[in-house]
């Protein structure tokens, strides 16, 4: 394969993409929010403690009220202390005074994790469990179980109870981060809580607790699409840089590439292997809805492409084993079927399926597939194995571990196709409903101009 002359321009787009950590974390005073009421047993008394002045006895009593925490292995609920050792209370067994809205945590997390145009949406925080980790408790690597198409992330709050160990380790795309709430909390001058929120497809584990008790509240985060929210002042954060990258650099590098007439002379696709995975139900989920719940740099690609009037289509990539070609589909075809790989090219010949055969620019022309719908494609971010059919679903043992038994949802691995016209008319987004004229000169709109009812759909 010859290296196309414009490769440096493609590399510049890739370099401008947001590589921030897939989580945010911070610490904030507990204030008067430390009270916790809980049920001690099925017929037992109410228990009470205040995390602002908690004693070892009180923590022992809370731990004794907990049931063993289970986890999900595929569709099974499993109790296995070699994988997860911790206590749990379900939400019908406790009541905490902590209010993540009034403490500013909810707004802070929304501001940090919703990117660009998605930040006009709001996150709903659903309280999920209270967990108590005693000495030697831990939770091995897993991803939180996808529960809905709009499930977006998880939030963990750690209370100021003396403990050592129990750091949360997060891993994503070959990188690793460690957030040790015990050491963060022990450095605060007043009783405080540590929070960490991460995108739900990020692998994480709780390292073994060495001493004391680690008490947490966990929340599931869902993207709501019909709300505006006002921004709260940011809370002090802990040593992880999440300063926003300059979207204008990405926009400039994308337009630089498109000004080059040798790039996609007949039009085609700029393809981005996505950084994150998204919950979907095979054959049911409307793949196009994923555009509303994109995370991190995946959302930035969409915003920047829209600002250049380019249409963005979430796609599934399937490799046709028979023809040895890649095929893209903008719909969640039931690709769990055994023969789908050899069907793929055939499907791409069926206009109702909207699929197309991928001809990667620089590779020999696919003359044997003349008559099929073929598009020239330039991969901007690597087409990793993640975007291929074989690993499109939770199937490997590593991905089968969740924090709850699986529902119908799986994490799908997708790519974004930015549709590009020929040099004289690159724009492919004909109409931006209710948005026309609202772009400022940079191509981005200020918050005040944003109208919730107007969604740019691919
Ligand atoms: O306690 C933590 O830091 C994370 C717990 C967790 O991963 C879970 O409950 O799914
Ligand atoms: Fe988890």
- SSE class: alpha+beta
Low-pLDDT stretches are: 226-234, 386-398, 432-458
What would you call the quaternary organization?
single chain
Strand order of the largest sheet: 1-16-12-19-10-8-4
Query: Which geometry do the CA atoms define?
Result: elongated
Describe this structure in words.
There is one protein chain. This protein folds into 2 domains: 7-18 and 246-449, no CATH class; 23-224, Jelly Rolls. Helices cover 15% and strands 32% of the residues. It is built from 7 helices and 28 strands. It has helices at residues 7-16, 56-65, 105-113, 181-186, 247-259, 296-307, 340-348, and strands at 23-29, 35-39, 46-50, 67-68, 71-73, 76-78, 84-85, 87-90, 94-96, 122-133, 138-142, 151-158, 163-165, 168-172, 175-179, 192-199, 203-206, 209-212, 214-224, 268-273, 278-280, 311-320, 325-329, 356-360, 374-381, 401-402, 410-412, 415-420. The strands form 7 sheets. Strands 1-16-12-19-10-8-4 form a 7-stranded antiparallel β-sheet. Mean pLDDT is 81; it is low at 226-234, 386-398 and 432-458. Residues 142, 144, 204, 403 line the site of fe (ii) ion.
Question: Top keywords for this entry?
Answer:
458 residues, alpha+beta, Jelly Rolls, 2 domains, seven-stranded antiparallel β-sheet, six-stranded mixed barrel, 7 helices, elongated, disordered C terminus, binds 2-oxoglutaric acid, binds fe (ii) ion
Write the layout of secondary structure elements.
Elements: H1 7-16, E1 23-29, E2 35-39, E3 46-50, H2 56-65, E4 67-68, E5 71-73, E6 76-78, E7 84-85, E8 87-90, E9 94-96, H3 105-113, E10 122-133, E11 138-142, E12 151-158, E13 163-165, E14 168-172, E15 175-179, H4 181-186, E16 192-199, E17 203-206, E18 209-212, E19 214-224, H5 247-259, E20 268-273, E21 278-280, H6 296-307, E22 311-320, E23 325-329, H7 340-348, E24 356-360, E25 374-381, E26 401-402, E27 410-412, E28 415-420
The structure holds 2-oxoglutaric acid and fe (ii) ion (FE2).
């Amino acid at each position: 394969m010859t290296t196309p002359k414009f490769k440096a321009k493609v590399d510049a787009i890739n370099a401008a993409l947001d590589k921030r950590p897939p989580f945010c974390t911070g610490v904030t005073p507990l204030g008067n929010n430390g009270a916790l009421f809980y049920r001690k047993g099925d017929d037992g008394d109410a228990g009470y403690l205040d995390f602002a002045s908690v004693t070892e006895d009180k923590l022992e009593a809370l731990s004794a009220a907990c049931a063993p925490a289970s986890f999900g292995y595929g569709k099974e609920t499993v109790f296995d202390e070699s994988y997860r050792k911790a206590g749990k209370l379900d939400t019908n067994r406790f009541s905490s005074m902590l209010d993540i809205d009034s403490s500013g945590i909810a707004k802070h997390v929304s501001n940090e994790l919703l990117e660009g145009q998605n930040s006009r949406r709001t996150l709903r925080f659903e309280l999920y469990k209270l967990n108590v980790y005693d000495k030697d408790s831990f939770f091995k690597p897993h991803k939180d179980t996808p529960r809905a198409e709009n499930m977006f992330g998880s939030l963990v709050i750690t209370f100021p109870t003396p403990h050592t160990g129990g750091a949360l380790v997060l891993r994503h795309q070959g990188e690793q981060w460690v957030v040790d709430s015990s050491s963060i909390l022990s450095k605060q001058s007043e009783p405080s809580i540590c929070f960490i929120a991460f995108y739900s497809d990020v692998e994480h584990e709780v390292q073994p607790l060495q001493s004391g008790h680690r008490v947490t509240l966990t929340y599931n985060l869902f993207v709501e699409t019909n709300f505006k929210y006002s921004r709260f002042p940011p809370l002090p954060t802990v040593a992880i840089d999440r300063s926003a990258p300059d979207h204008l650099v990405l926009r400039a590098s994308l337009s630089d590439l498109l000004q080059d007439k040798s790039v996609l002379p007949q039009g085609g696709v700029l393809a981005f292997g996505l950084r994150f995975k998204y919950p979907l139900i095979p054959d049911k989920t409307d793949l196009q809805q994923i555009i509303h719940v994109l995370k991190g740099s995946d959302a930035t690609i969409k915003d920047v492409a829209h600002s250049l009037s380019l249409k963005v289509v979430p796609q599934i990539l399937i490799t046709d084993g028979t023809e040895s070609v890649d095929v893209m589909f903008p719909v969640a075809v039931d690709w769990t079927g055994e023969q789908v790989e050899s069907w793929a090219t055939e499907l791409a010949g069926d206009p109702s399926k909207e699929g197309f055969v991928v001809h990667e620019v620089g590779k020999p022309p696919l003359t044997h597939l003349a008559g099929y719908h073929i598009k020239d494609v330039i991969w901007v971010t690597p087409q990793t194995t993640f975007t291929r059919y074989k690993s499109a679903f939770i199937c490997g043992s590593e991905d089968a571990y969740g924090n709850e038994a699986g529902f119908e949802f799986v994490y799908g691995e997708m790519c974004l196709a930015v549709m590009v016209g020929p040099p004289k008319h690159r724009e492919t987004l004909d109409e931006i409903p209710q948005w026309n004229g609202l772009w400022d000169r940079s191509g981005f709109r200020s918050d005040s101009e944003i109208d919730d009812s107007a969604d740019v759909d691919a």
